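Incident log, support desk, overnight shift.

02:14 A customer reports that sequence design results differ from what the structure should imply. Their input is reproduced verbatim below. On-call engineer (initials T.W.) acknowledged and began investigating.
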């Protein structure tokens, strides 16, 4: 967990929960203000990382409402006294249902999440002096959003696109066609040089996925 050299943004990835979800800590190198992206659980681990890195948490950002991404958000927000931002309001039903969703996996202390701010296509959010734009990319969930930093060519993709794969759409509210259209219409046009961090697994570039991801061919 070290600062990225010559970058205005620091990034640390913390795989959390049995789902090994990539909770991301991002921080402005100048102000040392930090955002916690998709804290699915393992709150003590996240708190320890914040202390180790030496940054000041300012907000929690959510890409979508699934328990492995949002399950620790309410506890963390209360502990740190920071707001929860995102996702799109179309995922409200998932955030409301988190306690029930947790019980399906024998997790008994999961709490519903009420964001201080919903996000929509074209919104901007910032951590310190670093500004990200918001893309609404449904399909995996109706309210899924991604966060793009144009100058740094960096995307927090959540569960839209992965290295060699794409997000699951076999939920009652999922749509493979909608997801693929969103990836091709909103994410790939950001540029082949864009490095993205997905919700699970290793980072990749949009160019690599455009060229070789079997779900994005044709």
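02:41 Re-run completed on a clean worker. Output:
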């Amino acid at each position: 967990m070290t600062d990225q050299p010559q970058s205005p943004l620091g990034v640390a990835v913390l795989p959390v929960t049995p789902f090994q979800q990539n909770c991301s800590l991002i921080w402005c190198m100048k102000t040392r203000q930090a955002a916690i992206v998709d804290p699915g659980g393992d709150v003590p681990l996240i708190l320890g990382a914040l202390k180790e890195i030496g940054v000041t948490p300012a907000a929690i950002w959510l890409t979508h409402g699934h328990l492995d991404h949002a399950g620790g958000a309410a506890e963390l927000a209360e502990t740190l006294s920071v707001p929860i931002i995102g996702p799109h309001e179309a995922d409200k039903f998932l955030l409301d249902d988190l306690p029930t969703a947790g019980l399906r996996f024998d997790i008994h202390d999961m709490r519903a999440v009420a964001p201080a701010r919903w996000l929509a296509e074209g919104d901007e959010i910032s951590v310190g002096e670093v500004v990200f734009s918001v893309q609404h990319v449904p399909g995996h969930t109706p309210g899924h959003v991604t966060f793009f930093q144009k100058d740094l060519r960096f995307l927090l993709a959540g569960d839209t696109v992965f290295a060699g794969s794409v997000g699951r759409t076999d939920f009652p509210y999922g749509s493979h066609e909608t997801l693929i259209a969103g990836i091709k219409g909103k994410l790939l046009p950001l540029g082949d040089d864009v490095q993205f961090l997905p919700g699970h697994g290793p980072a990749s570039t949009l160019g690599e996925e455009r060229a070789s991801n079997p779900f994005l061919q044709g």
